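Complex record, two chains
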Amino acid sequence: GAVVSQHPSRVICKSGTSVKIECRSLDFQATTMFWYRQFPKKSLMLMATSNEGSKATYEQGVEKDKFLINHASLTLSTLTVTSAHPEDSSFYICSAGPTGGGYGYTFGSGTRLTVV
Amino acid sequence: AQSVTQPDIHITVSEGASLELRCNYSYGATPYLFWYVQSPGQGLQLLLKYFSGDTLVQGIKGFEAEFKRSQSSFNLRKPSVHWSDAAEYFCAVGALDTNAGKSTFGDGTTLTVKP
C-alpha cells in the first residue's frame, strides 16, 4: 500500500514554455503533499507544502509565481513550472501522506525536467 | 531549526563487508528520523524510520539504525553489503507538527561497493 505515482518521469521542454508535473496517491487519500527539488549531487530541498483545498505554503526563496501548485483533490497535486528556463532543470520529487496511522509519507519516483 | 549532517560524502566498501553510515541531527524535541535510499534517476525509497520506542530500528533490505539521543545520532548499519546496495543514502528528520512529512534532509552519502 501507500503508493505515490509521479508523472511524467522525464520531460524536456523549450525555454519559455510551461510544464505540469502530477503527483498522485494511488491507494490512499493524501491531505498533504510536499514538493522537493533536488540538484545534481545535492540533497533535497523542500519547495512547498500542498494541502488539499487550500493554497500551498512556499518555503523562503521559492517563487510562487514560477512554481504553481494545485492540490484540488485528496489524491492529486500538480506542480506547474511556468516560463521555464534552463536553470529550472532539476529533479522534482513529491511526497504524499500521511499514511500508516498518521506518521508516514511516501515519495514519488521523481520527474527529471530538462529545459533547453 | 532542524538540521541533519551526514559527515561522509562518499564511502566505499567491499561486497560482504559491514557498513555504517553516520547521521547527526539537530532538533528541539523528539525527532522523527528516517533513512532513504535513492538509485540514480530514481525517487526515494524509505529504508526505515524512528518515531518512538525501541531505539534499534529494523528496516528493509537488511538495514538497521540505532537512535542515540545523547549523541544526536541515527546511524545506519548493515552487517553484509551486497553490490545492489550501491546508491545514495539520505538521512532525514521530520517535523512533529506535520506528522514528519516536512522533512529536512542531509546532503547524502554515496555508497560504492567493490566486488
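Note: Chain A touches chain B at residues 6, 32, 34, 42-44, 46, 49, 91, 93, 95, 97-98, 102-110, 112 (CB under 8 Å).
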